[in-house]
Description:
The complex is a heterotrimer of chains A (389), B (352) and C (135).
Chain A: E1 4-11, H1 22-37, E2 46-50, H2 54-57, H3 63-70, E3 80-83, H4 89-102, E4 108-116, H5 122-129, H6 145-160, H7 164-178, H8 192-197, E5 200-202, E6 205-206, E7 215-224, H9 225-228, E8 236-245, H10 260-273, E9 282-284, H11 290-299, H12 308-313, H13 330-334, H14 338-354, E10 367-374, E11 379-387
Parallel strand pairs in A: 2-3, 2-4, 9-10
Antiparallel strand pairs in A: 1-7, 1-8, 4-7, 5-6, 8-11, 10-11
Chain B: E1 8-15, E2 19-22, H1 23-29, H2 34-41, E3 45-48, H3 55-68, E4 77-83, H4 94-102, E5 109-113, H5 119-132, E6 138-146, E7 161-169, E8 175-187, E9 190-191, E10 200-201, H6 207-226, E11 235-238, H7 245-253, H8 257-261, H9 266-269, H10 276-287, E12 293-297, E13 302-312, H11 327-332, E14 335-336, H12 339-345
Parallel strand pairs in B: 2-14, 4-5, 4-6, 11-12
Antiparallel strand pairs in B: 1-7, 1-8, 2-3, 6-7, 8-13, 9-10, 12-13
Chain C: H1 6-11, H2 13-18, E1 20-24, E2 30-31, E3 49-53, E4 57-66, E5 79-86, E6 91-95, E7 108-118, E8 125-133
Antiparallel strand pairs in C: 1-2, 1-3, 4-5, 4-7, 5-6, 7-8
Amino acid sequence: MRDVAIIGVGLTEFGELWDKSFRELIAEAGSKAIFDSGIGASEIDALYIGCMSAGRFVGQAHVGALVADQAGFSHLHIPSIRVESADASGGLALRQGYLSVASGLNDIVVVGGIEKMTDVTGNAASDILATGLDQEWETFFGVTYPGIYAMIANRHMHDYGTTREQLAQVAVKNHANGSLNPYAQFKRPIDIKNVLNAPIVASPLGMLDCSPLSDGAAAVVLCALDKAKKYTDKPVKIIGSGQASDMLPLHGRENICTFEATVYAARSAYKQAGIQPKDIDVAEVHDCFTIAEILAVEDLGFVKKGDGGKAIENKITTLDGQIPVNTSGGLKAKGHPVGATGVSQIAEIVFQLRGQADKRQIKDAKVGLAHSIGGDGASCVVHVLEAMK
Amino acid sequence: MTKNNVIGIVSYGAHVPRYRIKSSDIARAWGKDPDTIANGLGINEKSVPSLDQDVATISVEAARAALARCDIDPQDIDAIYVGSESHPYAVKPTGTIVGEAIGATPNLMVADYEFACKAGTAAIQSCMALVKADMARYGLAIGSDTSQAAPGDALEYAASAGGAAFIIGNKNVIASLNYTCSFTTDTPDFWRREGNKYPSHGGRFTGEPAYFRHIINNTKNLMIHVGTKPEDYNYAIFHQPNGKFPVRVAKMLGFSPEQVKQGLLCPFIGNTYSGASMLGLASVLDVAKPGDRIMVTSYGSGAGSDSFDITVTDQIEQMQRNKAPLVSQLIENKEYIDYATYAKFRDLLYWE
Amino acid sequence: MADAAVPRFWRAIPQRYNLIANQCSTCKKVYFPPRESCPYCRRKSIGKMKNIKLSGRGEIVTFTIIHDAPEQFEGQAPYPMAIIKLDEGPKITAQIVDCDNNVKIGMKVQSTFRKIQEDGWVGALYYGYKFKPVK
């Protein structure tokens, strides 16, 4: 398999974007990415789109064809593939795009992620998000997406002594980072009291432990590395790509407090990249809820299992910590338009590795990681990227 | 080949939901004097079903309790009749839900019954007949309700939730059903029109021409036929729309308050409608001894009474009654709610 | 949950009403809901999976109290949801009732029959298992 690089990225702002439709959002992100890369439309071999549930959010299936149309590429008649893995759809779209270039099938592809979640009511959006869980054996009985993660939090607190305050600190850190990110949905810092006093959603998680409902899109352009120099002097190489699956319902897992899918996907990506977790300089992880970031830093191998709470408390994952996590603000502050998230994480890592992360910049960032989870950990995609000199 | 075996109750089970609301709290909500109400009606508190309980769930719990107390293979239950005036569906039987939940399907006769508060005892009569005719090995008769009452109406103090299940057969009966008879007329004392949410009633008309006339006539008829007198009975159970009527009708018939006491549950859980006489009987069976004689007369508005002359057999000592909750335990297992929660549970506030 | 979910619910009645699981005759592992074949014994288990009825007894592994509930469950909020490890081995997700919202990891529970959902005002009623504490 040959090397693949990212040569362009583009994002819309994330938030409640009343004035922008599903179609407008993906067109905006896509054209920004293509412009950033310097390629011409006729050079694109295929489109890969991550989108969890346009069918229910905006009543639209056949998203691949729709995006090709909106992008103005229909007359090129290129393949356009929509990919779904609940909220890992964006990460999975990147992997599928990457594999198509690595295998030699394509030279240049555009990978996009899009979700428009606010055209339905909040209750409806929550129900749609919950379709990533086990419909017959979890949601049927009354558990919600926050409820599932709250159960993980309670067990994590029981097994490892993780505290409510440590969970809250994840949200505080991510809001602090988000306030430095022009694309973020929430640009306002919060303090720990805000988090602890927020209305309870599912104990112990309150409203500020939960990522918001958002609209947004992100896109990146992938190119075979040996052709990338034609377009950019700052290609970012994908050095590792891993994907893994696990039992659909949380109760099917051996261990409630470990996402084996993350462990396996990360292991696979690290192996391909020839690195260890400690070699990662900056990471975007899937903090759909505060507890999810705590699990991620453990399951990705940044700290030992059970030490995720201590890690945030000891400020290991802040902008000036040992391993900065979610410099973009994470899903919590940047926003979580589910299909777009995985791709927006890649965009943030690319900004970091190119030195374009502005006030969020991690000094000398050379190797970055993006981690995307589906539902309550039934699927996971991990990518490792490296700055090229 | 005709069986000469005695037909009777082989096992029984009961269920009462946990939530309770005090009469005094209902009275206060409507600006009435709490003590006057509680003393006048003889009801201290009543049971309230939670949002996830209905006649199907209560019937299943009672039926499972009955099966827990005996060794019957549910596949040998050949008929299930559920009597209620608050079936979850107007069309689609409760009996099939019970049948699946106890593993009695698919070779099974099922129908739902309705006759106000005596739908469950009517089911017992049908099961007796099926067993006697050799058409069923065992029949399961259930009376259960989550009765509705209009907010602010006098019935609101009494209308409650609960049910009991009786397995009728002719093997190893713990209580023989010696004789049954019914007294039925077209007396519109209490009714609910199709599509309406709450019942209506004729006020004081529900007393003498309805409740008292049918219970008194039927009980007298039964005692004449069987050749008994009130003092021959250890226990007497009458339908209990409030805490006062059963005691009064007992006195009018010549029964004593002591005979009525064990089966009188209304002061503690309200009127469980189709469950009322059946739960009263279950409460008596919880403590009955071999040889005890029991009189049960139910009453259903519209109107009619079913009476049963019952003798407890030696077999009751073999039954492990504590394999399922006793009625006294169900009564004690409670959690109080206030009127606002009650209104939410009983869907008094329209919300979508 | 609207649109014709009736057949989906009906197919799962043995599981939802009676906790019917199945067991691999080779390795004896118990699966709830039942599986076509054992994921570990694979083709050796085809045709050798036996239905069994679970006792409904189990222990709480973890839980949460749901405050922000989906529409069908709004009236019951706040209510506890838990992951329960059943005595026979499988884990299950269910609501805990009759507990005053007082739930602990390690608590012993027993299944009970309740109405899980109503499909609006005119749709069908869906019954199934919830769990209550046992002494």
